[in-house]
Amino acid sequence: MPNPPTGGPSLPQERRLLTAIPGPRSRDLQSRKTAAVPQGIGTIMPVYAAAAGGGVVVDVDGNSLIDFGSGIAVTTVGNSAPALVTAVQDQLAAFTHTCFMVTPYDGYIRVAEALNRITPGDHAKRTALFNSGAEAVENAVKIARAYTGKQAVVAFDHAYHGRTNLTMAMTAKNQPYKSGFGPFAGEVYRAPMSYPFRDQGTDRGTDGPAAARRAIEVIEKQVGSENLAAVVIEPIQGEGGFVVPAPGFLPALAAWCRDHDVVFVADEVQTGFARTGDLFACEHEGVVPDLIVTAKGIAGGLPLSAVTGRAEIMDAPHVGGLGGTYGGNPLACAAALAVIELIETDGLVARARAIGDLMTEHLRKTQAGDDRIGDVRGRGAMLAVELVVPGTTAPDADLTRRVAAAAHAQGLIVLTCGTFGNVLRFLPPLSIPDHLLVEGLDLLDTVLEESR
Ligand code: PMP
């Protein structure tokens, strides 16, 4: 058996299967995992990583897998990108932690300045740093409540915002995220999302403002803007199924919020940092959110998240009202600065668009010959196919599971999502070479064919 590689981005950019997937070393680790880690922490693909870079993850058995997942949209600039490794190593040698709330450091300020500069809108902004996406969403709600003096929060059907108590309340899907974990935080209300594939046959299928009017009516009747602190929305929904709202939906919602003193919060945890072929997904429709929440792709895998927004809103909470021991950890800040620079110097926004073009063309061709593919959608390197019973919009979660499992067995890391469990989603690192994209897509065609 080969020794696990020592890794990094110099890894051969190839799919290589030396054992069954998972191999013996992974299976051994998986049985230790079962004994040591609670089952609540699930594993989508029990293949244990030894190294990763470019467009591959190499496992402990020496298999090299094509990565269409980026660790759930995190390693956008590629795993262990050399510039990021150097930046983090330099910071590691200088100091690991002082706590920004005790004796601060400039890395935090530089990340805040960079986010204030690159997020949508040229108004005065502030940025606060945290650790996880969920923690940042929670803080965006705290900030909106402090600013407006109001309490209610609106989230949407199919939304995912995290697994903490407040964000579980904001997340739509019961299984596996919420079931048995209540009671949930109060003053969270749900509005209907624009979901063009499932709104077919109504004017809302293509008419975003019509879908927004439906949502706004629910909000006005069931909540009331006089009680509403914030509307929180993913500009393209992630876990809920890569749902791209109909054009005009987001601008209409944002305009209503502006007119009613409601803070419009974009949760760009999954869509941010060049993933969708713009730095942020809001930009596709020129939407300028009051607050934007980022995480995942922000720091190449080091834990970091942020709330960035209008200075007057961000400054509403009192001194000491926000924070946390690790928020804006210096190592994560060094990584984030390297990520932001790499996006700019390596032209990763354009790369995401090119990946989107290549993959969309292929997936649409596949769809033309396969009536189980109801929809191909997404933007940039955030794409998905929704699998249905042919000729209907009835979700086929069983087929989706089988296709994903068969792809895994062939060495392709692919994730599923969606309220109905019938969406295959593709989130390759932007460092993936084209030949691996094509090989992964061809493989997907094969396993789709074999899953008939
Ligand atoms: N919001 C969105 C849109 C997400 O996709 C996620 C993670 N999947 C979160 C929030 C929560 O982020 P984290 O897992 O870092 O808490």
Based on the model shown, name its key terms.
Aspartate Aminotransferase, domain 1, globular, binds 4'-deoxy-4'-aminopyridoxal-5'-phosphate, 7-stranded mixed sheet, 15 strands, Aspartate Aminotransferase, domain 2, 4-stranded mixed sheet, alpha/beta, 13 helices, 452 residues
Secondary structure layout plus pairing:
Layout: H1 24-36, E1 49-53, E2 56-59, E3 64-67, H2 70-73, H3 82-94, H4 106-118, E4 125-130, H5 133-148, E5 152-156, H6 165-170, E6 188-191, H7 208-222, E7 228-233, H8 249-259, E8 263-267, E9 291-294, E10 305-310, H9 311-314, H10 330-345, H11 348-368, E11 373-379, E12 382-387, H12 397-409, E13 412-413, E14 415-417, E15 423-426, H13 434-450
Parallel strand pairs: 3-13, 5-6, 5-7, 7-8, 8-9
Antiparallel strand pairs: 1-2, 2-3, 4-10, 9-10, 11-12, 12-15, 14-15
Helix pairs in contact: 3-10, 4-10, 7-8, 11-13
Bound molecules: 4'-deoxy-4'-aminopyridoxal-5'-phosphate.
Detailed description of the structure:
With 452 residues, this protein is of the alpha/beta class. The protein folds into two domains: 24-77 and 348-450, Aspartate Aminotransferase, domain 1 (Alpha-Beta Complex); 84-345, Type I PLP-dependent aspartate aminotransferase-like (Major domain) (Aspartate Aminotransferase, domain 2, 3-Layer(aba) Sandwich), CATH 3.40.640.10. It has 13 helices and 15 strands. The protein has helices spanning 24-36, 70-73, 82-94, 106-118, 133-148, 165-170, 208-222, 249-259, 311-314, 330-345, 348-368, 397-409, 434-450; strands at residues 49-53, 56-59, 64-67, 125-130, 152-156, 188-191, 228-233, 263-267, 291-294, 305-310, 373-379, 382-387, 412-413, 415-417, 423-426. The strands form three sheets. It has a seven-stranded mixed β-sheet, sandwiched between helices. A four-stranded mixed β-sheet has the order 1-2-3-13. A four-stranded antiparallel β-sheet has the order 11-12-15-14, covered by helices on one side. α3 runs antiparallel to α10 (330-345), α4 (106-118) packs parallel to α10 and α7 (208-222) packs parallel to α8. The longest helix has 21 residues, at 348-368. Mean pLDDT is 97; it is low at 1-7.
